[in-house]
Amino acid sequence: MGQFVCQKNLPVIFHQKLKAGFLCFSLFLDPRLKDYLLMGSPVSMSAILLAYLFFALYAGPKFMANRKPFQLKEAMIIYNLSLVGLSAYIVYEFFMSGWATGYTWRCDPCDYSNSPQGLRMTRVAWLFLFSKFIELMDTVFFVLRKKHGQITFLHIFHHSFMPWTWWWGVSYAPGGMGSFHAMINSCVHVIMYFYYGLSAAGPRFQKFLWWKKYMTAIQLIQFVLVSLHVTQWYFMESCDYQVPLFIHLIWMYGTFFFVLFSNFWYQAYVKGKRLPKNTEQRTQNGTANGSSAVANGSSVSNGHGVHENGLSNGKKHHENGSTLNGKMKKS
């Protein structure tokens, strides 16, 4: 129980409090999580993320250097639609474990008890974290399909930084007002991975992707909601949320990506500029490289990548069909 009390009373993550000859940060783990995968210590999850970085930045591209891109259409469809189902389940569990069953949507402290509600929130917070490790497959698909242009700094930063920070978040505060952004992010992922699944299915489904441009708007709404929600904390006379540090981090995270995506929206839809021109390589489906048929359907990777808008070299490349050898071919 001393382990739990130490964790509960921490005002910041690395507050050093001696207990039985150990620093408090070595005893932080919520005991309710001790049997969950990857939660024994930060070593396992950090090793996975380091291996991910090594593969994405060095080993993967080197392995594919003299190989043709893999055709992973079926695998991508299954992967993306599976994440639609998982994300929808996570949203439901967040609602049922607090957000629709007692939370005020303002200052909601973390429930550290062993009550059914507290345990349910702990479980879905871990499940959200685990889904971030599953989503590392986004980058694996990019590498194996030789879409190296999609592996941007932003893509790598998001896929490595978010699981790492959320591991600490789940360990210290699995629930409460700090879990709002996870619930909203999962809502967005239901839409996003559904889009990816349709796009991965090929040109026949392009006519159903007319709403591609609105994916960026959905991202912007996400960041606005997240930032506004945590901003409340700064104007409250008192709030007993146990780890205020997470409020500051979430606010910075939401604001940073709102600015980033706002700039993209302005450049893409107001000024009419697109991403840098790519050489006109033709893929097996007859679409230009850099089109909407990229890994996971677009380069909005987990909501924080750079969203290509189905335009290659600044021009639309298919309209219920696909561009092939400069001519319009009906599907």
Automatic annotation (TrEMBL):
<comment type="function">
    <text>Catalyzes the first and rate-limiting reaction of the four reactions that constitute the long-chain fatty acids elongation cycle. This endoplasmic reticulum-bound enzymatic process allows the addition of 2 carbons to the chain of long- and very long-chain fatty acids (VLCFAs) per cycle. Condensing enzyme that exhibits activity toward saturated C18 to C26 acyl-CoA substrates, with the highest activity towards C22:0 acyl-CoA.</text>
</comment>
<keyword id="KW-0444">Lipid biosynthesis</keyword>
<comment type="similarity">
    <text>Belongs to the ELO family. ELOVL1 subfamily.</text>
</comment>
<dbReference type="GO" id="GO:0019367">
    <property type="term" value="P:fatty acid elongation, saturated fatty acid"/>
</dbReference>
<feature type="compositionally biased region" description="Low complexity">
    <location>
        <begin position="288"/>
        <end position="303"/>
    </location>
</feature>
<keyword id="KW-0812">Transmembrane</keyword>
<feature type="transmembrane region" description="Helical">
    <location>
        <begin position="36"/>
        <end position="57"/>
    </location>
</feature>
<keyword id="KW-0808">Transferase</keyword>
<protein>
    <recommendedName>
        <fullName>Elongation of very long chain fatty acids protein 1</fullName>
        <ecNumber>2.3.1.199</ecNumber>
    </recommendedName>
</protein>
<feature type="transmembrane region" description="Helical">
    <location>
        <begin position="151"/>
        <end position="170"/>
    </location>
</feature>
<dbReference type="InterPro" id="IPR002076">
    <property type="entry name" value="ELO_fam"/>
</dbReference>
<keyword id="KW-0443">Lipid metabolism</keyword>
<dbReference type="GO" id="GO:0009922">
    <property type="term" value="F:fatty acid elongase activity"/>
</dbReference>
<feature type="transmembrane region" description="Helical">
    <location>
        <begin position="241"/>
        <end position="266"/>
    </location>
</feature>
<dbReference type="GO" id="GO:0006636">
    <property type="term" value="P:unsaturated fatty acid biosynthetic process"/>
</dbReference>
<dbReference type="GO" id="GO:0005789">
    <property type="term" value="C:endoplasmic reticulum membrane"/>
</dbReference>
<feature type="region of interest" description="Disordered">
    <location>
        <begin position="280"/>
        <end position="331"/>
    </location>
</feature>
<feature type="transmembrane region" description="Helical">
    <location>
        <begin position="214"/>
        <end position="235"/>
    </location>
</feature>
<dbReference type="GO" id="GO:0034626">
    <property type="term" value="P:fatty acid elongation, polyunsaturated fatty acid"/>
</dbReference>
<dbReference type="GO" id="GO:0035338">
    <property type="term" value="P:long-chain fatty-acyl-CoA biosynthetic process"/>
</dbReference>
<keyword id="KW-0472">Membrane</keyword>
<feature type="transmembrane region" description="Helical">
    <location>
        <begin position="124"/>
        <end position="144"/>
    </location>
</feature>
<keyword id="KW-0276">Fatty acid metabolism</keyword>
<feature type="short sequence motif" description="Di-lysine motif">
    <location>
        <begin position="327"/>
        <end position="331"/>
    </location>
</feature>
<comment type="pathway">
    <text>Lipid metabolism; fatty acid biosynthesis.</text>
</comment>
<dbReference type="GO" id="GO:0042761">
    <property type="term" value="P:very long-chain fatty acid biosynthetic process"/>
</dbReference>
<keyword id="KW-1133">Transmembrane helix</keyword>
<feature type="transmembrane region" description="Helical">
    <location>
        <begin position="182"/>
        <end position="202"/>
    </location>
</feature>
<feature type="transmembrane region" description="Helical">
    <location>
        <begin position="77"/>
        <end position="95"/>
    </location>
</feature>
<keyword id="KW-0275">Fatty acid biosynthesis</keyword>
<keyword id="KW-0256">Endoplasmic reticulum</keyword>
<dbReference type="GO" id="GO:0034625">
    <property type="term" value="P:fatty acid elongation, monounsaturated fatty acid"/>
</dbReference>
<dbReference type="InterPro" id="IPR033681">
    <property type="entry name" value="ELOVL1"/>
</dbReference>
<dbReference type="Pfam" id="PF01151">
    <property type="entry name" value="ELO"/>
</dbReference>
<dbReference type="GO" id="GO:0030148">
    <property type="term" value="P:sphingolipid biosynthetic process"/>
</dbReference>
